[in-house]
Amino acid sequence: KNWKVRNEANVDLASVCDSITDPKDPRLRDFGHLFRKTVADSNAPVQEKALDALVAFLKAADADAGRYAKEVCDAIAAKCLTGRPKTVQKAQDALLLWVELEAVDVFLDTLEKAIKNKVAKAVVPAVDVMFLAISEFGSKIIPPKRILKMLPELFDHQDQNVRASAKGVTIELCRWIGKDPVKSILFEKMRDTMKKELEAELANVSGGAKPSRKIRSEQDKEPEAEASSDVVGNGPTEEPVADAPQEIDEYDLMDPVDILTPLEKSGFWDGVKATKWSERKEAVAELTKLASTKKIAPGDFSEICRTLKKLITDVNLAVAVEAIQAIGNLARGLRTHFSASSRFMLPVLLEKLKEKKPTVAEALTQTLQAMYKAGCLNLVDIIEDVKTAVKNKVPLVRSLTLNWLTFCLETSNKALILKAHKEYVPLCMECLNDGTPDVRDAAFSALAAIAKSVGMRPLEKSLEKLDDVRRKKLSEMIASSG
């Protein structure tokens, strides 16, 4: 009960932990459970010494100490973030050491609770330690998605210091993952004044941030790496290259949205069977709207896709266009979860390319490109459907299919083209003899796209079979595309 005794005990504990050099020392396991109570001490000087002991413990321990992380971090968030400045700083040091020991999820769970504290004085240090974690460890260790989820409520906080700290975290995130993903997710949830302030500050933010601190398991690897570089000897050293911001796919930062439940309630199924074309269009338009969300929760879309496949050939072109646009949105929002459905609908979409009306052609182009870009289809998947389409009796189907193939080739990686080019080169060579100039030009473009990606070698044998005029034209196109 005597605070001086508790104080001395914390000082002794810190001293013992400082003397430990082996993270597997059994004493560390005896100490771990103590900190839940010691850091919550009601006496401020004792609490501070308890945090000193915790910091010493975390420096001596390894990832095994993670078993105590939740209870200790919760105690820190509840009792240490409103104390004296030195106490707050030591609490933040301890929280960052838990990150170093790879208890990142616990750290972020703790912050999620801490930012809901009714006392603004306790929220600011929590947001500040969030900033320090990203700044020191980087976005590979601290998942941006978790941080982005916490920020909107901080922008609306009544305390200006909390809002200012949240702005600092946002700017720091932009240094790590780029401005666009951060802006697209956060800006729609912000007030206009905050948007303007951030826009002004983001103008001067550049990417290429590098971590200044490593998690413990990476630190342990460092001596080995240095030793191996010494063995190599005094070879020429490479110039350091400035890192670009970490490539983050916005899609991965989003939460999936369930669209099946609201679609069911919207009267979609009755609408698509209606005899009036305007009612059918309205029902599909509701699906297009719901599917425009950036990330759709996976589910059973098979019946919806069967319905859309029929509507692609609807007698009313406005209904057909709406169905085609809905498919494009589903592809963008579901990505690989839409693969089977994409393959199921592809033959009908390619056949529909015969429609001359610009609105239909535009919708088909956008949707076919979206299906490929979203990863619903790849070059190997589409071979048979492309082969069928380039033999279609309507020249427009042949030329537009080849245009889409060119897009697919231009947006595919080299390995995939090397895997599939043996199927596509003969097919395109055959199309160079087509009676329609647009088809021939589209075939030239597709061949040029193959050559640009994997070089001339796959085309050499086929080139020998071409007459001089065609060989010259293809060579010129390849040269200009390169």
UniProtKB/TrEMBL annotation:
Q: Does the keyword Repeat apply?
A: yes
Which locations, inside or outside the cell, does it occupy?
Cytoplasm, Cytoskeleton
- Top-level lineage group: Eukaryota
Q: Where is this region: Disordered?
A: 202-247
Q: Which UniProt keywords apply?
A: Cytoplasm, Cytoskeleton, Repeat
Q: Name one GO molecular function term.
A: microtubule plus end polymerase
Pfam families for the chain: CLASP_N, XMAP215_CLASP_TOG
Q: Which GO terms describe its cellular component?
A: cytoskeleton
Q: What is this protein called?
A: TOG domain-containing protein
- Give the species: Brassica campestris
